[in-house]
Amino acid sequence: MTETILVAGTESHAGKSTVAAGLCRLLARRGVSVSPYKAQNMSNNARAVIGPDGEWGEIGISQYVQAQSAEVPPTTDMNPVLLKPRGDGESQLVIQGEAVEHVPAGSYYDSYWDGARRAAVESYERLAEQHEVIVAEGAGSIAEINLQHRDLANIETARFADAAVLLVVNIERGGAFASLFGTLELMPADVRDRVCGAVVTKFRGDPALLESGIEEIEARTGVPILGVIPHDDPGLPEEDSVSLPSTSNRVVTGDDDGVPAGQSVTVGVPRLPRISNFTDFEPLANEPGVRVAYLPLDSNLGDVDAVVLPGTKNTVDDLLALRGAGFEDQLNDFSGPIVGICGGYQMLGERITNAGVESTSERDVVDGFGLLPVETQFATTKRVEQLTVPIDGAGMLAGADGTASGYEIHMGHSTPTTTVDQPLGSESAATERVLGTYLHGVFENENVRMAFLDTVFEYAGQGDQSERQTARSPHDRAADLLEENMSGHSLPVDL
C-alpha cells in the first residue's frame, strides 16, 4: 500500500519545498520508489514535462525539482492543477499540463474547482499505483479557515490521499510556537488527527535555546518536534516570486565567500513586474564567485558585469515598463554580455507583432530594443516542449560544444530578419555579445553555463577561470540538512 506524507506549512514560504525535496532524496537514497505531488500550485515558474498521454504539458518548478530529487521522470500528474498569475486578479488555468482558460479567482472556484479536484484525485491515484511513497506538498498555510472547504493542496489532499501530515514551521520571523499552536487549533479535527509531527525551519543560532519551548509545545499539543533545520539554503530553485525583491528594491543572491578578491562577477537581472521562470538564474548564483542581482527597472548598469533579461508572463507590457523606466537607454550604453531568455529574447529583437494576443496593450506592433535582428509574432497557440539542441559555439558561447537540454513554454515565434548566428538551435539568435534563446533551463547545462561565465569573467577583466569549482548538488544538500537535523520517528516511513 502506498504511504503518503503531506508536507504542509503554517504559512507561505516556510520551507515546504525544501523539506519535500529533501525527503524525496532521502527516500530515493534508501531504494524507496518515491514521487512528489502537489494537487494545486500557483506559480509562473513552470517546466515542460510529459503527461500520461505522451503529450507535453506544464507543471510547477518545485515538483519538477522534487522529481529530480526522487530520481524519477517528472510527469504532469505530479502537479495536476497549476494557476499561472497574469495580473489583474486573473490566472491561466493549467489542468494536467494543458492550458485550459484565463480565469478570475472567483470564476475558478465557481466553475472549475470541481473539475480540478477530479483531475487531482485521478493524477494522485496514477502516481500511487506506481510508487511506494508519495511526498505531497501543501500550499501556503493549512489553517486558512476561509478556504478550508475548497483547499485542494492541503485539506482535500490530506483526506483523499489518507496522508500523514508533517507541519513545517518557519522560525525566521519569530512566533513559531504560537504559529504552530494556532495552526493546530484551526485545522479541521479529522486533519488535525493526521499530524505526525512538526519540523522547525530557518533557525539561526544554537538549537539548545529552543529546548524548553519544544518541550512545552509538545506537552500542550501532543505533536512531536521532529527536527530543527538551520538556515542554510541548499540552492534549490524557488517556487514563486515571494523570494524575490519588489520592483523597487535590489537584492543579490549567491556570494563570493572563499573566492579571492577580484575574482567574482555580478549578473544583473531586471526584476520585471510579471517575471516568470526566474529559476533560470539559480545555477549561476550557485557557482562560486558569481552573484545574481535582481535590479529595479530604473537601475544603473554600471556595477554589473552581464545582463540577463528573464522570462515574463507578459512580454509587451513588461517591455513597455522597462522602456518607461529608462532601462532601454541603460541597456544601449552597456558594453558587456547580454542574454535574453524567452520573453527577454523577444524584447531584444527589432519588433513584436500581433502584440495584443499576449498583452493588455491595444498596439498591434511594438518596437523591441533592437539588439538582435529578429522579429517576433504572437499567436494563440502555446508551445510547450522539452528538447535538446546542438550547440554551435558562437559569440559568448565560443568554446562550448555538444548539446544543451531545456524546455520551451511560449506563445510567440521569433524569425531572423537577416543572417544571424544561432548557437542554440533555430529558436535562438546571437551577435558577438548578445544572445537570445527560448530555452529555459539553459544555464543548467554545464557546458553553456561555463562558456557564458568564461565570457563574463573575461569582460570583467578576471582572466582565465578554467579551474573554477562547480557547485555541489542542491538535492543532496537538502537531503543532508534533513538527515543531520531531523529524526524519523512518527513518520510513515523510516528516514
Structural class: alpha/beta
**What would CATH call the architecture of the largest domain?**
3-Layer(aba) Sandwich
**What's the number of extended β-strand segments?**
25
In the residues, how many domains can be counted? Answer: 2
CATH superfamily of the largest domain: P-loop containing nucleotide triphosphate hydrolases
Computed CA radius of gyration, to the nearest angstrom: 23 Å
- Inertia-based shape: globular
What is the count of DSSP helices, taking H or I runs of 4+ residues?
A: 13
CATH topology of the largest domain: Rossmann fold
Distance between the termini: 18 Å
Strand order of the largest sheet: 13-16-14-17-19-25-24
Mean pLDDT: 89
**Residue share in helix:** 25-40%
pLDDT < 50 stretches:
none
Into which percentage range does the β-strand content fall? 25-35%
What is the CATH first-level class name of the largest domain?
Answer: Alpha Beta
- Largest sheet properties: 7 strands, mixed
Structure description:
This protein has 495 residues and is an alpha/beta fold. The protein folds into 2 domains: 3-235 and 476-485, Rossmann fold; 244-459, Rossmann fold, CATH 3.40.50. The protein is built from 13 helices and 25 strands.
Write the layout of secondary structure elements.
Elements: E1 3-9, H1 16-29, E2 34-37, E3 40-42, E4 46-50, E5 56-60, H2 61-70, E6 81-87, E7 90-95, E8 98-104, H3 105-130, E9 133-141, H4 152-160, E10 164-170, H5 176-186, H6 189-192, E11 195-203, H7 211-221, E12 225-230, E13 251-253, E14 265-270, E15 275-276, H8 282-285, E16 290-295, E17 306-309, E18 311-312, H9 315-324, H10 327-333, E19 338-341, H11 343-348, E20 351-353, E21 365-367, E22 374-390, E23 403-416, E24 428-430, E25 434-437, H12 446-459, H13 474-485
Parallel strand pairs: 1-9, 1-10, 2-9, 3-6, 10-11, 11-12, 14-16, 14-17, 17-19, 19-25, 20-22
Antiparallel strand pairs: 4-5, 6-7, 7-8, 13-16, 15-18, 20-21, 22-23, 24-25
Helix pairs in contact: 1-2, 1-13
